[in-house]
Amino acid sequence: MEKKLREILLRIKKGEMTIKEGMERLKVLPFLELGYAKIDTHRPLRRDLGEVIYGEGKRKEEILGIVAKLKEIGEDCLITRLPSDLGEDLVRKFGGRYFPSAKIFALGKFPKRKKKEKPIPIITAGTSDIPVAEEAAVFLELLGYPVKRIYDVGVAGIHRTFSHLKEIRKGRVIIVIAGMEGALASVVSGLVSKPVIAVPTSYGYGANFQGLSALLAMLASCSPGIGVVNIDNGFGAAYLAHLILSSK
User: 169: Cβ–Cβ under 8 A, 6 or more apart, which residues?
Assistant: First the structure.
């Protein structure tokens, strides 16, 4: 399978095969077997975006092997939840970029948006929520979307939210990230006419239950038009925003 994949890519580079013909051939090559991992090379054909690797919990040797293989076959590589020391090692070995605030490593040429988009507001209730927000923001920026970061505007000082309302309302989709009781998503949704993607975070005192209280509050919101992703899942929120904006 690997040999066939390299052959197809080489023929495209040499002009012996069109991209369309190559895509048709690639449809029968759904993944590459590494023993400890199966790289889903078929995913871009199904979902437009390639596989994103979850870095947390993987051994260094496994991540190095995955990145080496993706670079070899010319595929984009994006890894989330990657510790800074390992991210910097990957940059030295393979190139690419590491974003410490988001814990994301990126290598390759990611698809850029052709249509000019209005900035996507990414709003956090507090400063503690920023790492989750940065995961969403960096991923969207890698895809070519403009992002408007609006941080630390939670309900404890709701006037801070209102001071950004004009910018918030310009977004075609809005990402709201909050811990504690997670109320900010409901407040924002009640003030805008666009879909809101809510991200509960694990930040908060004991009764927050590592984000469970914020998750349940967002799911129980009385404001319609809110989609809720899992706790601390900034990447999932960004991916959903991309799907909404790229839908025809």
Answer: 191, 192, 193, 194
Q: Contact at 8 Å (CB) between 162 and 187?
A: no
- Tell me if the pTM is above 0.90: no
Give the rounded distance of the alpha carbon of 223 from its chain centre: 25
The answer on pLDDT for 44 being more than 90 is: no
Query: Which residue is listed with tokens 């908060």?
Result: 204
3-state secondary structure of 227: strand
What pLDDT was estimated at residue 1?
A: 46
- Please state at what angle helix 84-94 crosses helix 60-72, rounded to 10 degrees: 30
Could you write out the DSSP letters of every residue in 93-111?
Answer: HH--EEETTTTEEEES-PP
Give me the half-sphere count of Cα atoms (radius 13 Å) on the Cβ side of residue 246. Answer: 17
* Residue 134 · residue 234 · CB < 8 Å: yes
Q: Measure the CA–CA gap between 17 and 38, rounded to whole angstroms.
A: 26
Residue-wise pLDDT for 49-98, tens only, equals 777 888 888 888 888 888 888 887 777 788 999 988 888 889 888 888 89
pLDDT at 3 over 60: no
